[in-house]
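Q: Fold this one first, please.
A: Sequence and structure below.
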Amino acid sequence: MISGPRPDVVPVSATLEFARFMSTTPSNPISANNAADHTNADQASSQRTPLFDLHVELGARIVDFAGWEMPLQYAAGIMAEHTHCRNNAALFDVSHMGQLRLRGESAAQMLESLVPCDVVNLPVGKARYSFFTNAQGGILDDLIISNAGDHFYIVVNASMRDQDIAHLREHLGDCTLEELTDSALIALQGPKAAQILGQHCEQALSLNFMETLVAPIAGVECRISRLGYTGEDGFEISIPQSNVVTITKLLLQHEDCMPAGLGARDSLRLEAGLSLYGHEITTTTTPVEASLGWAIQKRRRTEGGFPGADIVLQQFESGTARKLVGLRLAGRVPARQGAQVCNTASDSVGEVTSGGFGPTVEAPVAIAYVETEYASPGTDVLLSIRGKMHPAVVSALPFVPNGYKR
């Protein structure tokens, strides 16, 4: 691993603009001079994952994301990384996310008091997507809960990990919560991910989407879960920090695997119609509005028992005033977060939450909340972008069919 001068660290608020609203040029450089001020104090407080030196060795452009120095892109560029993931496989460092272990006889019941998914009946070896809700039914954060047998393995977002851990600790009761600070996390994503991982861990091939197991990779016990954030088949792999560089390099040796950064991760999840905290899901957004009702199982819809249940369950019955939709833009101008969605009379009827160029779609796409009246696929709308109206049409999500192994 390389140890040398610290590379320039560019604030993600500026550089993800490139990821979401880039032109079709894949290798357009990012300059620290074009970014917002990033003080020495901010740099000093940033954290590094165990793969940081490898990112630098591989030529990554490093950005500050949620207090972590993370790769935005590598030399090939965001477009190339995105396309490679769709067609082959890409490897992402997601060690900045929080990995937690919850133990206790009442662990399932405790979790159910905070989330609307069915944890009590979650089988061993299965994972489930869920979210913490508040008293108004808003989403505090989303997370993955896995039944690991003698404990629940939980992964939370990097930007909210401290708040999520504090939220869980506040309600622990007789349970214990451990943050797995000695474990790194990588994501191997793409249609050839199984072929690549299977060469080193045959047991991983037995997994279906949202299943998890512990198995050796190169002699190292790892937790392998078949899931991810790209819309493609793939795995998230929790690895002891002392072994993560070796295993990452082993996977990257395959000719069909390349490293990918935050930029491609964002454009991939946008095309896959996957929500991002602070964009599609917020403390003022309910699961029903966010089209996440599928993550609330039938028993929980009947029994409730989670924060904001009265509001959420009422919305299942009566509907909501707004809905989350996809938008396909007619031209080449991408819509940014906050762009107003208007009807054909130019009246505002919604707002874009995420938008950018979809490399697979080969056109700009966006996700937005719109008034329910305008939420049907095929509805013509206008987007107010930099003072001009641009035609778009409401689209079903995702923009690209998913490749999950069911």
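Q: Good. Now the second chain.
A: Here it is, same layout.
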Amino acid sequence: MLFLAALMLIGGALGDFYGRRATFSWGVGIFTLASLGCPLAPNPDMLILARAGQGIGAALLTPMSLTLIADVFPKGPRSMAIGIWSAASAVMTAIGPPLGGWLASEISWRWIFIIAIPIGILTLIISLVFTPSRPPKRKPEKIDWQGAVLAFVGCSGLAFGLIALARADGAGLYEWFLPFMVGVIAIGLLIRVERRATSPMAPPELFKSGLFNSVNFITILLYGAMSGIFVFYPIYLKEVHHLPLMQAGLAFLGFTLPMGILTLGSGFLMKRFGVRLLLAFGSTITILAFAAMGLFDWSGTMWGAFIAMMIFGTGMAFVVPSMTTVIFNATPEESHGAASGVNNALARAASLFAIAGYGAIAAAAFAANAGAEARFVGFGMGEALSGEIGENYRNAMNIAFNMLIYVSMGLALSAVVVALFFIDKTAERTSVKISAKHQIFGFLRMFSTAPTREKDITQGHEVLSDNQQAGSEKE
């Protein structure tokens, strides 16, 4: 997650500089090799190292996937090609959690990574043999390596500081405070560098729009709340309620259903009620969804989890298309690609920091409520405990997860406030209309399968002009 979040923008720049097919192929190759390293890892450290390799590969291939389609297909067939691409992404997103749960519970967790290897090899062959290589229409003057390094150092420092905070236990502030401050300083330097860079990863002029900043803040709040709770929700279901991994994976299918139904009517709803109210309404629904995940007696059942995920999917079905519309309405037409790229990168960064921060909160709450025996076993490691010790362990796990629920509800409530008071009437202009297809792209972004990029939607028709193409390439 660290490498994916920190290197996403530089991955897009590398594609424009060295060629998109080459960058995509290198990304697939790195990801496939790292996927081979994951099941072969003899210890957790090597597994984490292999996962970092996957993040590097994903940061290269993800920005290029949709751009290659725009390069290869002319305007007519392009719509059908993108539709097939989005449908394939949606199918794999839907079957991923239950398949992973079945592999982990019935065979081995290692097979979750093994199945990616033949897919990666096939993808690499297709990209090298059947995909034409075409130079970008606009090539950056140079790669912003300085910005990329600062982004990585900043994300690393902040994330490591949050992770170390969970382990400090009074051993000294330096364990978490020093790396955290290094991250803060690096992010400050990154802002300074991007303002002066010849070919910046994130164009500074975008951030002069208060509307753009507001929708980015909503993105950080909601994607952070979602990513943090989604990591710990399966652990909670398994450890506290003994729900099999496959059933937990099936419950996550509830998230995908509302999007397919509600997306079709989101354009009418935005026109009828406005994006500001839809953002606030969708964020409010996510508050109810977070509560349904852990605060009721039925929350620990498969159907209870399925219903909670359906509620959350309903809320995000209102939020995502409205968010995409605001991003486009808040920025000039020629900057739509760069704007959506920045928003996408911030969503990944929010996921990274939320996972690390939620871990610190969960560890502290667990340690405060678990007995000595449960603390010795550790958070998320006591499913086999029984008797009084097991009861104490499950109670501490339940309290820790409920703490995360309240944090997520607070973040979602903050998103409601930002939507109501900081999204102004300029977000409602109707010069840009978003198709259902583009809304699906935004939805898939939540699962790290698709960047939102590539084209403006005008008068209900997909129009890819040279300026818009250049904006996309700038991303």
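Q: Anything worth noting on the second one?
A: The two ends are 19 Å apart (CA to CA).
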